[in-house]
Fold this sequence. Notes:
Residues 405-412 have low confidence and may be disordered. The protein is an alpha/beta fold. The chain contains 15 helices and 18 strands. Strand 9 and strand 10 (143-148) form a beta hairpin. Strands 6-5-14-15-16-13-17 form a seven-stranded mixed β-sheet. Strands 8-2-1-12-18 form a five-stranded parallel β-sheet. The protein has helices spanning 17-28, 53-62, 65-71, 95-103, 112-121, 168-173, 198-201, 248-254, 260-267, 308-325, 330-359, 365-376, 379-382, 384-387, 391-411; strands at residues 10-13, 33-37, 48-51, 73-74, 77-83, 89-94, 108-111, 128-130, 134-140, 143-148, 153-155, 158-161, 180-192, 204-210, 213-220, 225-233, 273-279, 291-293.
Amino acid sequence: MTEPAGNPHIAILGGGIGGLAAAAFLHRAGLTCTVYEQASELKEVGAGLVVAPNAARLLRRLGVLDALVERAVRLDVGWEFRRWADGTVLSAEDLATACERLYGEQTYTAHRADLLDVLGSAVPDGVVRLGKRCTELVMRGERPSVRFEDGEVIEADVVIGADGVHSVVRGTFTESPAPAYSGICAFRALVPAEQAPAFARRNAQTLWIGPGHHLVHYPISAGTLVNLVAFAPAGDYSVESWTATATVEEFLVEFAGWDSRLRDLIEAANTPGRWALLDRAPLRRWSYGPVTLLGDAAHPMFPFFAQGAAQAIEDAAVLARCLAGDRADPAKALQRYEKLRIPRTTRLQEISHGRSHLNHLPDGPEQHARDKAFAGDDPLVANGWIYEYDPDAAMAHSRGARTNEASRSLVD
């Protein structure tokens, strides 16, 4: 493959949300790349996700937000916490009026497949190669070499591991410890809107919290579906796969005794998915020479802040800017990328990890204190460091800090 003079040959392993976002931002920065996706077609398993202002801002820059909004749902209410037994509202956030005023963008909910589709529309034809499962990644001199299951071998100047939580790239180049048992599993399901109770069809992101469990629902797909995801004790369940399934009866058992309206919602679900949440410690390093990680491959996190896809899109934006700014030395660009991104994603990994304890408190004094705190909290403002993030500002701040440091060293 011949690249324009001065442009590195960039290979992206993985054509999910992170991989396609990286390809789109690289194209926008004037860099060419090839995406190698193991599946035979581009599709997203799973269901819904939240597109918070930090993600919406970047999708707008790619020119794809308007297309997504046509298929998404703009939230009027978010962070609506309800008590497990009777649905008492503990707190709720008025997103319709506050979100854009604070952060310049609204918050949306969308089907993962719709987000993947609009990201793909920002990638030139021929960039994505399907049916390319990576089986081996090695260094040949200063260039990484990738072997695929079909026998093809390619070399590149840069390899981006956007290959998910079971990343081959991470397994090859990092010394990350084995994932730990979290004791939590997740159920997910889609409910046709016409079969969902009225309370679940509102333009609201609602979280029901109770002893050892919590359940989240919101509409997606222009309001035609309700996305349902719930968390419960895992017992001896340890399968970490988005394609594993459960039965509606198993789902119902976990929420026996909860508000009867939830039973109606769960009973309307199609075959639920079920997967174990495995706990992975944050990595201290993502990049090894011209090889780096992105998205879940770099920072798999519990979904309790709904930031997994958003952080992959942020990664993509920063990575493209770094590579465009230092085309002659990709390894140096990748070092800057991880330095800019690791502190933020590590913080999100850590707070997401701690959220399960807070959401799953048994009834009692600690639960009463939590509920009182929720009533006085403003999560939209308290989490401003998440939603106001802008890669351009982060990089400008980094450049300023380096300039000031250099100036001090000259004076010293």
